[in-house]
Specification:
Shape: elongated
Number of helices: 9
Distance between the termini: 27 Å
Strand order of the largest sheet: 3-2-1-4-5-6-12
CATH topology of the largest domain: Rossmann fold
CATH superfamily of the largest domain: NAD(P)-binding Rossmann-like Domain
Order of helices and strands: EHEHEEHEHEHEHHEEEEHEH
CATH architecture of the largest domain: 3-Layer(aba) Sandwich
Strand content: 15-25%
Number of domains: 2
CATH class of the largest domain: Alpha Beta
Radius of gyration: 19 Å
Helix content: 25-40%
């Protein structure tokens, strides 16, 4: 039995993690953490998730015995959770984005003590796609322009999405480019001809779109489009739970979804 903590347990992702983990005999939910001023503090996490009560209340971070924590919160909370887990020897899988350089710094330090995983997107399909677009970029080379189009719901605050950036990094790796030097975000006005090296990003925000990412390779006389469409947040939850299973019992270190999927 894997004892699981969910940080950000009252959020949309947190509630679904609680619901699906409660159905899985491999997991026992040990803690459901939220910010101290959350209006649902003290309520049963199962009830909040829309399932039967599980006997675990929504609480701030506290001393809880667990094997793995899954974090879908916000940057500040995730940064604190990484340190909290490292102090207690609890593995952590982080799906929160926007932590920047400080996030990598915290994870590198924590990885000396515990197994850590950070993924911009925990969907299994997206993580296979990352490998596919890297290999496609390497094979097609500079003869093909690359554009990345992503669409999300109208409540999403950051753009481009962390997944779009991860896809861009995969493409850049395949092409031997530095993404920071070649990324172009949207176009407006007389911008001139497209350069050979640039990788374009375009963000759409509308309605309740869960997640839609397309990587377009455009050559002379043809184009190849690779697309991933998420129709339910449960796909991210299942990936997160698979990551949690993978991390349980692993030695300290940095891991990725590629490791979880056995992609090397």
């Amino acid at each position: 039995m894997i004892r699981l903590i969910v940080n950000g347990a009252a959020g949309r992702m947190g509630r679904r993690i609680i619901a699906l983990a409660a159905e899985d005999k491999e997991f026992a939910i040990a803690g459901a953490f939220e910010r101290p001023d959350h209006p649902d503090m003290g309520k049963d996490a199962g009830t909040l998730a829309g399932i039967e009560p599980i006997g675990v209340a929504l609480t701030p971070r506290g001393d809880v015995a667990a094997d793995v924590a899954v974090d879908f919160s916000h940057a500040d909370s995730a940064l604190a959770m990484i340190g909290w887990c490292a102090e207690r020897g609890i593995a952590i899988a982080v799906g929160t984005t926007g932590m920047g350089a400080e996030g990598n710094k915290r994870l590198e330090a924590a990885a000396k003590k515990i197994p850590c995983l950070l993924a911009a997107n925990m969907s299994l399909g997206v993580n296979v796609l990352l490998r596919v677009v890297r290999d496609m970029a390497a094979a097609l080379g500079d003869a093909y322009d690359v554009e990345i189009v992503e669409a999300h719901h109208n409540k999403k605050k950051d753009a481009p999405s962390g997944t779009a950036l991860a896809l861009g990094e995969a493409v850049a790796a395949g092409l031997g480019r530095n993404l920071a030097e070649v990324a172009v975000h949207g176009r407006h006005g007389m911008v001139g001809e497209r350069t050979v090296k640039e990788i374009g990003f375009h963000a759409v925000r509308a309605g309740d779109i869960v997640g839609d990412h397309t990587v377009l390779f455009g050559g002379q006389g043809e184009r190849v489009e690779v697309r991933h469409v998420a129709t339910s947040r449960d796909t991210f939850v299942r990936g997160a739970l698979r990551a949690a299973r993978f991390l349980a019992g692993k030695p300290p270190g940095r891991y990725s979804m590629a490791d979880v999927l056995g992609l090397g």
